[in-house]
Amino acid sequence: MPNPNTPFHPIIYVRGYAMTAEEIEETTADPFCGFNLGSTVFRAVPDKKRPPRKFIFQSPVVRLASDFKYENVYQNGCDILDEEWETDATGKPTGNQLSSRSIIIFRYYDQASMMLGTGKTPPIEDFARQLGELILRVRELVCKNPANGVGEEDFRCYLVAHSMGGLVCRAFLQNPANDPRKASRYVDKFFTYATPHNGIDMAGVNVPKWFGVDDINNFNRQRMSQYLGLAALKNKLPDDRVDWLPENRFSPDRVFCMVGTNRMDYEVAMGLSRTFAGHGSDGLVKIDNATLRGLKSNGQPGQPCAKAFAYRSHSGHYGIVNSEEAYQNLTRFLFGDVRADIWLDIADIRLPVEVQKQQDAGKQINALYQFEILASPRGKLWYLTRRTAVEDSVACMSHANWLASPKENGSLYVSSVFLANRAKVNPNRATLAYCLSLNVRVPDYEVEKKLWINEHYEGSYLFRNQILVELAPPATPGAKWKINYAWQGTSLNRETTELDAKALRTGKVEVKIPLPSDGMTLPRVEGQLRFVVSAWNPDAEMEE
Fold this sequence. Notes:
544 residues; 7-stranded parallel β-sheet; 7-stranded antiparallel β-sheet; globular
C-alpha cells in the first residue's frame, strides 16, 4: 500500500567535506553538523532614508520544524544509532519512537574524530556503506512506530547533502559494491547543495589523484570514477567527466542539484580558494561541475537532473545551505505539487549584416551567446533560480557549435521550477504562477578569431523580456492542464493566452511558447521556450 506519510518522509542530511583535524573536531562537536546555521540578509528599500530591511533565515533545521513539523531524533543526549536510544542502562525500554517527519544527521565524521573515534578518516566507500546501514536503521524505527502506519516495503526517505556529502550519497546510490544490502531502493529523492559532481578544479586543473593529504583526492575524477562505480563503464561514458548517474541505479527525475554562483563570499584559506577556483564558481566548485545527468544503459547521455542557481557561496553564513532560495527549492522539490523543466530552443540566429557578409564569404565566425534566466514565484521576494552574466552563471552557447549542429546544440536545458500549493499568497486561488525573465546578451563577435567591434555596444541585448506563466493542474483524473501565459514587453500584462498542452509518453505535458520577434531587427535570435510540466507528489494529501 502507498506510504500514508507521502511526501513527508524522513530526511537524512549528509554534510560536506572537513579538511583538517580541527574542522573534523568542530563538525563532530555540532549536533547538526552545520545544518542548523542561519543567516541575516539585507534587502534595499525604495526610500533611501530608511534603513535596509532585514531578511532572516533561521536555518534549514528550524524552518523544517516550524513549516513542516519535522523533529530531530536526539533523545536524552542519544542518537538513534546509540544503544541507549531504545533501552536505558538497566535494559528498560525508553519508549522513544521515530516519526516519519524526522531529520537524521549522518554523522560519518565521528569515527575520524580524535574525540569520538580513532582519528583516522576512512575511505569514502566506507561512508557510503554506513549510509546504507543508517537508512535501514531509520526504516526499522519508522516501521516499528504504529503511529506512522508504514510497512517495511513502503518505507521511503530523502537524502539531502552538501558538497562532498553528495558524493557520499552518489557512491551509495550508484555503485552496487557500496550498497550490499540494497538500501538504495528506499531513497525517494536526492537533493544536493554545491556538490562537485564532476570534481574540483583549481586554476583550471583537476586536483591530482596522488594528492591524498586530507583526502583531497576524493575530488579527483579518476578516483571518483572508482568509488562512484563508473570505472567499469569507462568504455561507455560519452567523455571523461564523472557527473553521470546510471539510470538503472537511480532515476535522474528524482534528483535536484542546487548550484551556488557567488565566489566572493567564500572566505576559506583567506580567499585563496575563490581565487584559484576562479570565475564561474561558488568559491570552491565550478558551476559546470555542480550538476548531474542521467546515463543510459547504452552509454548515451540521459535526462538531466533538475537544477537551480542561487547567488550564494559554497558555505558559511552567506552560503548556499543557509539561504532562503535554496530552502525554497529544497522544500518544493520534496513536498511541492507542480514541476516545470524549462528548455530554450534556438531555431535561428541572425548575425549583424556586416558579420553575415563575412560568413557568406567563407570567413570563420564565432560568438558566445549568454542566456540569462531568472524565475520567481508569484508574491515572493526571492528567485527560485537566478542566472546572470554579471554573476558568471549564465547558460552559454557558441555560434560555431550551433552552426555545426543547430538542433542538438541549440536546445538548452536552463533550469527547473517546483511550485507548491501551500506557499500560495492567496490560498483560495486555484492556480500557481511564476515570472520568468529571459535575456540574451549581444556577444563579442569574432571574424577569423579577431574581435569585431563595429556597431558593438557592451551590455546590450539581442533579446530581453519577461513572461508570466500560470498553471492549473487537472482538477479530476483525465482532465487537461490549463496553462496560460503573457509576455510582459513594456508593461505588466495578465496571463490571458492559453496554451495547448501536448501529452507526452512519460505522463508529463509539454507546452511551447515562441519568442516574440518583429522579424526585422538584426542581429536577433529566434526560437521558443519549452516547458515540460508534470504533477509532483501526486499521491500526497497536502496541508496548509
